[in-house]
Amino acid sequence: MFHSFGSYAHLPKVWNNAVMPPNDQIIKKLLRRAGTARSRELVESGITRSELSRMVAAGQLTRVARGLYALPDYQSGEHGALVTVARRAPGVVFCLLTALRIHELTTQAPFEVWIAIGNKAHPPRLDYPVLRTLRFSDAALTAGVETHKIDGVPVRVTNVAKTVADCFKFRNKIGLDVALEALREARRAKKATADDLWRYAGINRVTKVMQPYLEAVA
Question: Is the dihedral of CA 180, 185, 187, 192 positive or negative?
């Protein structure tokens, strides 16, 4: 004899032909919305670290980097490495070659992610990606920073004019030819005004260095 239990809403859902525990549903919903999540965020949602380990072992979660998780079908796109850094170290500012790539001012694809931190800040420690960390003064670190959204994650990056000025300031690290290319492309594409370039050159104390090149592309 079969007995009716009324509504089936109380029954657990099935995922991959197995009963999905309530916490697994929470993880799936969170990661579908955000793409990736830090272990701290998942724990705050009521997930235990042992559950995270179990799901990774079962192939239901992917460990993108230390303390960062995604669903197995997660695709991060071209700037996935930046999302990983921004989730693990939200205070960093992407700069120089990485910022040039974001602003489409170069065709180079640096294998390192270039970030700026304060003079007294501790550099983030990540298994992935490889970081190239530079220390900026307080004025240089806060000036010309804008926030982009990549895969739904806020990413802080120097704006075009500040990025160009940074390239001249750190020309010994990236090469003067890269700085010149960035300046020419920024002016050609009208992505930075002369006034903004002069202003950030002053903040970075490279006005005399940039002056002849700024006048040449005026």
Answer: negative
